[in-house]
Write a structure and sequence with these properties.
alpha/beta; 9 helices; single chain; Rossmann fold; 275 residues; 33% helix; 19% strand
């Protein structure tokens, strides 16, 4: 069996909750060695996002709940108190030998600990340093924390999700999963992989990768936003109805619901023949 594509890549993961940890997990699945830094006592904030909690072989529940487990496989987890000088020294020493360092603290928080990009770059010029935030490094919203549901609302995703106007239960609706976190995690992985390729192709030059939830959710609405850019009209909610060929939606049948998508004229002709 051949080696995994990221074998030999070492990642220092200071991210918490979902978007950042998901990205680090993807990279770990691709073969990278991921060292996850957690807060002494409580660990990653996600460890408190239960129940359900996993039970050990003796049947006793622990702090490995379903939320934490979904984004942290294949990692080596250690506790470090980065608020202390000793903890900061430990992180810097680890970063010295890593290819990637990831963090999702509020903008400016790590600078006071000398764990920001410029400080880490000074000891490891080739490092790929990735920051995951709600609203990016600059701008009026940069200091704010970002949460998936808030970004679904602010970014317009809820505007085009939910029952059609006039139907019972009409109004904006949150997507079930934390979809903005998931998409941001994927964008984070893409950014890190691109920066690693850039480093290899450009004599070992590292980079600061900046990924945020707000950019991600805006980009995810590309075909909806294009409607507005073309005709100036805000796209309506369509419920389960599709965005292209019709009919496309949920039909209630005697034995349950059927999701039907007819994407082109040929499929429409065959659908009519079947009906």
């Amino acid at each position: 069996m051949s080696a995994l594509p990221l074998s030999g890549i070492k990642i220092l993961d200071l991210t918490r909750v979902l978007a950042g940890p998901l990205s680090a997990q993807m990279l770990a699945d691709l073969g990278a060695e991921v060292i996850k830094i957690e807060r002494p006592g409580g660990g990653d904030d996600a460890r408190a996002f239960g129940p359900p909690y996993l039970k050990d072989p003796e049947g006793k529940a622990n702090n490995n709940n379903s939320f934490y487990l979904c984004a942290n496989r294949n990692k080596k987890s250690v506790t470090v108190n980065i608020a202390t000088a000793e903890g900061q020294d430990i992180v810097r020493e680890l970063a010295r030998s890593c290819d990637v360092m990831m963090e999702n603290y509020k903008v400016g928080d790590l600078k006071r600990y000398r764990l920001d990009y410029e400080s880490i770059k000074a000891i490891n010029p080739g490092i790929v340093y990735c920051s995951v935030t709600g609203f990016g490094q600059t701008g009026p919203y940069a200091p704010r924390a970002g949460y998936d549901a808030i970004l679904q609302a602010m970014g317009g995703l809820m505007s085009v999700t939910g029952h059609i106007d006039g139907e019972p239960g009409e109004g904006p609706m949150k997507v079930g999963p934390s979809i903005v976190d998931y998409m941001t995690g994927m964008n984070t992985s893409i950014g890190i992989l691109a920066a690693l390729f850039h480093r290899k192709a450009n004599g070992g030059e590292g980079q600061h990768v900046d990924v945020c939830l707000f950019d991600t959710v805006i980009a995810s609405l590309s075909h909806w936003l294009q409607i507005y850019l073309v005709n100036g009209q805000t796209p309506p909610r369509r419920g389960t109805w599709g965005n292209g060929g019709m009919p496309a939606g949920v039909f209630r049948c005697t034995d349950g619901e059927l999701m039907l998508v007819v994407g082109n004229d040929g499929q429409f002709q065959r659908t009519c023949a079947v009906l």
